[in-house]
L-rhamnose isomerase (Herbidospora galbida), 1540 residues
Amino acid sequence: MTDLPAGLDDLAIETPSWAYANSGTRFKVFAQKGVPRDPFEKIADAAQVHAFTGAAPTVALHIPWDKVSDYSLLAAYAVDRGVRLGAINANVFQDDDYLLGSVTHPDPRIRRKATDHLLECVDIMDATGSRDLKLWFSDGINYPGQDDIRTRQDRLGDALTEVYARLGDDQRILLEYKLFEPAFYVTDVPDWGTSLLHCLALGPKATVCVDTGHHAPGTNIEFIVASLLRAGRLGAFDFNSRFYADDDLMVGAADPFQLFRIMYEVVRGGGLDPSAGVAFMLDQCHNVEPKIQGQIRSVMNVQEATAKALLVDAAALRAAQDGGDVLAANAVLMDAYDTDVRPLLATWREQRGLDADPIAAYKASGYFDEIVAGRVGGTQAGWGA
Amino acid sequence: MTDLPAGLDDLAIETPSWAYANSGTRFKVFAQKGVPRDPFEKIADAAQVHAFTGAAPTVALHIPWDKVSDYSLLAAYAVDRGVRLGAINANVFQDDDYLLGSVTHPDPRIRRKATDHLLECVDIMDATGSRDLKLWFSDGINYPGQDDIRTRQDRLGDALTEVYARLGDDQRILLEYKLFEPAFYVTDVPDWGTSLLHCLALGPKATVCVDTGHHAPGTNIEFIVASLLRAGRLGAFDFNSRFYADDDLMVGAADPFQLFRIMYEVVRGGGLDPSAGVAFMLDQCHNVEPKIQGQIRSVMNVQEATAKALLVDAAALRAAQDGGDVLAANAVLMDAYDTDVRPLLATWREQRGLDADPIAAYKASGYFDEIVAGRVGGTQAGWGA
Amino acid sequence: MTDLPAGLDDLAIETPSWAYANSGTRFKVFAQKGVPRDPFEKIADAAQVHAFTGAAPTVALHIPWDKVSDYSLLAAYAVDRGVRLGAINANVFQDDDYLLGSVTHPDPRIRRKATDHLLECVDIMDATGSRDLKLWFSDGINYPGQDDIRTRQDRLGDALTEVYARLGDDQRILLEYKLFEPAFYVTDVPDWGTSLLHCLALGPKATVCVDTGHHAPGTNIEFIVASLLRAGRLGAFDFNSRFYADDDLMVGAADPFQLFRIMYEVVRGGGLDPSAGVAFMLDQCHNVEPKIQGQIRSVMNVQEATAKALLVDAAALRAAQDGGDVLAANAVLMDAYDTDVRPLLATWREQRGLDADPIAAYKASGYFDEIVAGRVGGTQAGWGA
Amino acid sequence: MTDLPAGLDDLAIETPSWAYANSGTRFKVFAQKGVPRDPFEKIADAAQVHAFTGAAPTVALHIPWDKVSDYSLLAAYAVDRGVRLGAINANVFQDDDYLLGSVTHPDPRIRRKATDHLLECVDIMDATGSRDLKLWFSDGINYPGQDDIRTRQDRLGDALTEVYARLGDDQRILLEYKLFEPAFYVTDVPDWGTSLLHCLALGPKATVCVDTGHHAPGTNIEFIVASLLRAGRLGAFDFNSRFYADDDLMVGAADPFQLFRIMYEVVRGGGLDPSAGVAFMLDQCHNVEPKIQGQIRSVMNVQEATAKALLVDAAALRAAQDGGDVLAANAVLMDAYDTDVRPLLATWREQRGLDADPIAAYKASGYFDEIVAGRVGGTQAGWGA
């Protein structure tokens, strides 16, 4: 059997606290059983994902959803469960004041409020020891003329500049972009070009976050990944998959070949090396599937795609490419993709004291029954809380 | 000034009760002021739209959102306000049982429950005197393999057959299709072909409902309209507009030229004639704009597009088409589109005792201040209630 | 090692004569070496694909590109090389008369000419013994108003009716649809709904041809496949792959998981059974890659996807689906997809006296050098000839 | 009647020499009557567009399609006809050497050849006095793995750097981007982000060219326009319109409201001021419509959209935007769009000694009959020559 090349140990995948909470569409949020009721329970669930995969050592927080009075307690709780706190995700889209935007709102009072929230998130980063502030802005407009496109860019730049100045030496901004939703005509940060322009204006501690579900149909995401790595500005991934829009399905579920191509460009561009500073994060909604299982499967999907990317015969590929042999070059890539890496990963897990089959092991652990039985009363966590 | 051709009086636009309630995206429902708290208040708002436009004489209900103990009271209330009850919209997507589908669910108990709701809606139609049962199914699957595509079609056919058999002589099914959302891999009725196949299997009282926001990017909607009129199966429109997906913006706001082309095919295919049985309905979400104003503006947009369509010089168009004069034929259509029909519509309104400017007249009426002041306490209506 | 389930022997893939000729984009047709100069040489190339794969026993012809004075000679030549003549593809898009359409043209003279060509193709079918007449119409309009959408449908229906009446008992029409290109506003047969409507009007000998590159972005092709099989109207596939539009790349190259899902629905719906009458054809343009190799690889890709589809554990899948276990059901499908079937196919080939590696065997055969050396002088075949 | 605000006189629209030649799709190039046979005849046709619109004073050349032995003769001929030579468009996509790319080709010999062509184009600019070198690269790959994405960016950067160094003080590079076609997996300059990154690396004389048909579905083009103006890097437009892909229809034909929104952002961002250096160019293919008429109509469409943009009540718009009045702000924009500006433009033309109806005047001029009669013999110009 082919051996798994080195490199997979470098792959740490951060899971998001909100993936363990209830989520849904605008039509309905279906409540599931055993869902956490507070940030501590979310972290407990995230720790399960790491326990069975060995590859999800950190948990991203979302403020204010994960607001607690003492972050050192939360951090200690995480460590106790075998994980650590990760990126801080700001939320300036759920207050009634943000109907027409947050940092790009026409009203300076609301822009101030939103920027203050971002600054507060940096305070929280200081408390949690987080490196990354992930910024996703739902800001935008629904109707032509509703607000001035360019002025909103200026306002956005102002807010980012203020937040950037507040960052510590080891802290970063990850600026996410998204084509549409919830804004339906203009989104103020719709594409990687816009995000990159702002990052370039800010400085080296601002990098782009690529959410794999946030592009126009037909967009070549691996091209963007290669370009951002070339420009030294790929800060993070928000992984998920989609057939149509921002479906937030399990990464690799809709187009596993695309995920492989993305991970190939990461490997090719040196992005798997921890020194590159690329954060690999999941950002998904498990609307119909069990949440912990969904996260485990997603981590496995990223691992499998990465393992295949690591198997690409770089020398053979380059030789075929340089020789202009289109089909031979494509075949080198496909040979890696067509390989069944599941046995290799099973071995990799066993060598690290993990069960070869994380899903089966998790199911057998009884954890799910335990949380269904134990999490009685209280209010289940969701996007709103 | 050009005179407005006959035909506009045939255009009656039904507004949906839920457009007056709060709505939003999965990220946030922003509450607005003065929002109705029950079906009666929704109808009161809908009556305002008709009062100022003279073109919105009916209101669609959504069950269970608009469930009342006595529909004859609701109907009488409507008449009192100058409007009538319209189509009944079934809802089989918000009960916790429907996590994996309603009439296509793998579990026969849940299919039964969903079908019973549809039958109950026909009971309500009997009570309200409604002609149309509008069926939109959120049914579908998120992951390949989650359920069997074809079996779900069979289940759907079974449910529709049962409901069809229950219809009275003057009642119809309007079967809506939608590409995606809330299902993200397969939607069980994703396109007009699927809807039409089921309608053909059912019989003449089943027709297709075209929601203008429910198509894949690049779909030519007016072609579908022309084809359904040719097949005698265009039952209704759910009007709205979109830049990306099912954005549910005001109809005509995103692409007024498309709306004109659609209305041109309606006129061309005889669909404006009441005997054609085409129902013109709005189905929109006013997430950021005032709701009553949004409906008034939408009605006006449909009227303007229709007026332009009626202005097309049919003889000149046909002559240019038959002569193969591409640019002359296109110019005939564009001449109508480029015409500013607002003065014609102002005159049309004044001739019918309406204010020439419905938005200004509504604003001046004080109704909005009245409902903001009066609707204190209680729970605002939304999609969930 | 897993054994390959029965069924793969039922899979016969027809290659198109024009895939061996030069092709390109509107910007440039790059000539390749060794390209055939007449239909006989195309068939010689197609025979190579069958010789090395054992799965491509027939060759589709395109009229007039493959017009010969005596089709029995061409048929005998094919048999001599180990293959047979397949479907006849009509061409009503390259005569100067067809600037504004063929069977839907405003001028009855040109409609007559186009319909006569289709009838001539049935004559050729009689001579070649072909079962299938594949009809793809480039007909459409570029500008709103250029011609009447509905009238063109009527004209199309008239032409199809005339051709249908001319079919022999064992002959069929395969009616292809395509979203756009070369028409850019309306295509007269843009989607499966339109094709199916015409087929239903014609009768049982008219079925739909699904070209996998002819859909709007986001269209779920396997859903269409399942629906057409359910309706008994899936006549054929034109296989290729695409990232954007009708890219005509090698099937399985852009989204191998999609091809697997399609083949799964074929297997699930009984479409692999020869009695189902589904024709599996390639329709691709090898603009930058060697043509014969491209065809071999494409046949292999379809075989691999089919082998994976055959490996799906149907009982386990159904159990998980019926139990509403979303992730287990998805996992059953993915288990099959993630399997590396290449060793199974190697064995399958060896059992049938073929080389385990068709590409390597073809390369080693010296055929390519032979045609490069031998096909000197004359005019290379292309789309125009 | 509303008066047309100042600003329209600043709008000069460059027409492309190749729009007067034959063009088509990969399926067929339909020859038209009276088509030019050399660059001089193309300029004669372009001069007609200016004669009747007064707004198309320059003609873009395409090298080698418009190669002549003495460019001063061509320039003098243009002046004689009342127009001037405009941008030089390089062509590195039609030589057989460019099968796998030009400046990004794996083979350094071919990269050298391609770069030399670009340098030759600057020589021609020196001869013609052209300011702008428009670079569109068809470079890309069709299959994953075919070549290395990032290495191709490096090669592209090297070629651009060499060409940039060759530019005179008053010369510029306009770097065009395009999502896909003729490359189908990766295009080396697929979006504005990539183009801008290269421009930023080059220096102030490199700017982005926005072709309105080169985006992914759903892309908000006016946002890009606003962003590039804000960044000081909007160099030019290639105008055309599309329903699906790069359809190259007459600008404004597919979505006139979009064209209005684009021109509004141009006006809003100061791009209409000649000092902004934004070049307004047409780049279209008149496959089915008469070419000179098609250009005249296109110029008129841009003028009408610009006139509407100039009519926007900026103060009212800003007031509504600042007040957060979504519908009022949208209404201000729509008021301008809904205005029929054709009478205003008719007056504008008459004031400048032009006919109020350029199309009718052109038709009445007899020019078309003249070129049909006169251009006998020779080879019609097309994309290939």
